[in-house]
Amino acid sequence: MKTLTKIFNYLRSFDLFGVEPALYFKGQKKAGTSLGFCLTFLLLIFTSLCFGFFGTDLYYRTNPQLRYNEEYNPFPAGITIDPEISPILIELNDVSISTFWTNSSIINMNVSQFTMKQTDDGLVITQEDYKMEICTKEHFSKLDDTTRNYFQSMVLDHFFCIPKDLKNLTMLGSFDQYIFQTIKFTISICNNITNDGKCLSTEAIKETMNSGYIGIYFVDNNVLPSDYANPKQTQPKEVFTNFMIDSQKEIDI
What we know:
Layout: H1 2-12, H2 34-62, E1 79-80, E2 88-93, E3 107-119, E4 122-131, E5 133-134, H3 145-152, E6 160-161, E7 170-173, E8 179-189, H4 202-208, E9 211-223, E10 232-244
Antiparallel strand pairs: 1-7, 2-6, 2-9, 3-4, 3-8, 5-6, 7-8, 9-10
């Protein structure tokens, strides 16, 4: 009988809900103090704030909200284009999109820095012209992987690019300010006066490219709220228009 009692007592020691013996004083297991109450209260506040802060941070990492303020600045800082970070590609093709014109004996393509500046002697207008070059993969080496792959998947010898080392193209101000700068792209048929007699005849050029389309590809920046760590994203964009050889056309991007 004693053996069974010992076994039963031993098994009862595994009771997860057992009550440990305790000493009570005036019906309480412990005597509280004012200092202990203040410390406990401060600990609860600190713990609640931590849970709230980290909980909110964790929530907005997965469910971000975009907040922004709009401000008007009559004299904003200028924007200088780096062709390796913000490339601009231009293509010319026929209406069937089967022929692309890049031959220098047919067309010329320039990018220009156009400047209007008010001085004590009056309005000064200047234009610095630079020749565009045929695109290569090296023009896109500094882009992120997605954007670089987008451009490098094209048939690049069908496109004109800004020279990589041309880093001074700037947009600044407006017509009604003391200085205005803009970037111009000019496409013109080959002219033997400026091309040292290397051009096809005007009739041959008109027969080759009487009309067609102009495609302009560039990089835009967007804010992606769902990417908490890197919200600024680049996105390739395109603009298309048509042209005719005997007409002049101007578009703004």
